[in-house]
Specification:
- By secondary structure, this protein is of the alpha+beta class.
- It has ten helices and 20 strands.
- Helices cover 27% and strands 31% of the residues.
- Helix 1 runs parallel beside helix 3 and helix 4 crosses helix 10.
- The strands form five sheets. Strands 1-2-3-4-17-8-20-6-5 form a nine-stranded mixed sheet, with helices on one face. It has a four-stranded antiparallel sheet with strand order 12-13-11-16.
- It starts with a strand and ends in a 6-residue tail after the last strand.
- The chain folds into two domains: 171 residues, Double-stranded beta-helix (4-Layer Sandwich), CATH 3.60.130; 118 residues, Double-stranded beta-helix, CATH 3.60.130.10.
């Protein structure tokens, strides 16, 4: 255990997250963070996840102040892949999938060529049962993935295909946060996304992205994509078959391929998912918890839950992958 002024750092049963707790009452978390940025940067670079527990972070406004103390460079949630509610200045709800669903482990926005370097979560209300935010060390996950699979993806990249149709998955208006088709087309041009209007209100996009990325300061090359999450097999066999009765493969709401358009083999996806599963770490949320993640070093997900649950999220320090590709 190490002590730094009014804070102590302890490990739970697992290596992540590192837990920071106040030694005495009255420590303002946002003030302490602003005064100890180098310490936070150092600890976060080493472990990838810090859970701030036991501080008086009472509400959304207090969380917003904590986020800005970490970084003033908050990121808008654009080119969305999941439903969220915008509740404040670049503060959002965590993904609002139904409570009975699992959100697989992933690095935030790793289906894009740019992503936030840091994430923050704030637990206003933990679920009565479940609803944890499981974590995994991305470096360890990468080491578990067959090197031959890593090489294959590195040579081919990953292609994400998305179809936006009324009543199915997220609408293009929600994903791009606009109802202006010209704005959609501009965004796609600027971000290397192919787009085509299939009908008046139906859109298809394709984007080829990195399978891996190198950490800015540590230099680790980590598995950094969402091929396993976008692939139709992530829906489960029953749901996938039902969708395939309605849609041709190229018209599924979302799907992933190798960058050359060829199919990703089932055994490859199984190896990837097993790697995430083997490194999964779960901790129980407490009201007032604030979780800070290095988005390249630690991935996250969500377990199913019962009862009400309210977790807020913020993203900071947007980075473009074009300068990081190996």
């Amino acid at each position: 255990m190490d002590s730094y002024e009014d804070i102590r750092f302890v490990n739970l049963e697992n290596e992540i997250p590192l837990v920071a707790q106040p030694i005495k009452a009255g420590v303002n978390l946002s003030d302490w963070m602003a005064a100890n940025k180098s310490l936070i940067d150092d600890r976060l670079e080493k472990c990838g996840a810090i859970l701030f527990r036991g501080f008086d972070v009472a509400d959304q406004q207090a969380f917003a102040e904590v986020v800005k103390a970490v970084s003033p460079k908050l990121v808008e949630y654009t080119f969305r892949s999941t439903p969220r509610t915008h509740v404040g200045d670049r503060i959002y709800t965590a993904t609002e999938y139904p409570a009975n669903q699992t959100i697989p482990l992933h690095n935030e926005s790793s289906y894009q060529r740019s992503w936030p370097l840091r994430l923050m979560f704030f637990c206003l209300q933990p679920a009565e049962e479940g609803g944890e935010t499981p974590l995994a060390d991305s470096v360890k996950v990468t080491k578990r993935i067959d090197p031959a699979i890593q090489q294959k993806f590195s040579e081919r990249d990953v292609m994400y295909v998305r179809n936006y149709e009324p009543g199915m998955d997220l609408s293009w208006q929600t994903v791009f946060q606009t109802s202006d088709k010209g704005e959609v087309e501009r965004f796609c041009r600027e971000n290397g996304i192919q787009c085509e209007w299939k009908t008046k209100d139906a859109l298809r996009t394709r984007q080829i992205c990195q399978p891996m990325a190198r950490h800015l300061t540590r230099g680790d090359l980590v598995w950094f994509n969402q091929a396993h999450l976008f692939h139709a097999s992530s829906l489960g066999e029953r749901t996938r078959r039902a969708l395939e009765l309605i849609y041709r493969e190229q018209d599924l709401p979302r799907h992933s391929y190798y960058g050359d358009g060829s199919r990703i083999e089932d055994d490859v996806l199984e190896d990837i998912r097993n790697a995430y599963s083997a490194e999964t770490v779960i901790f129980k949320w407490k009201a007032g918890d604030v979780l800070l993640l290095d988005n390249m070093l630690v991935c996250h997900g969500r377990t199913p839950y019962k009862g009400k649950r309210k977790v807020l999220a913020a993203m900071t320090d947007q980075y473009n992958s074009d300068s990081m590709r190996d």
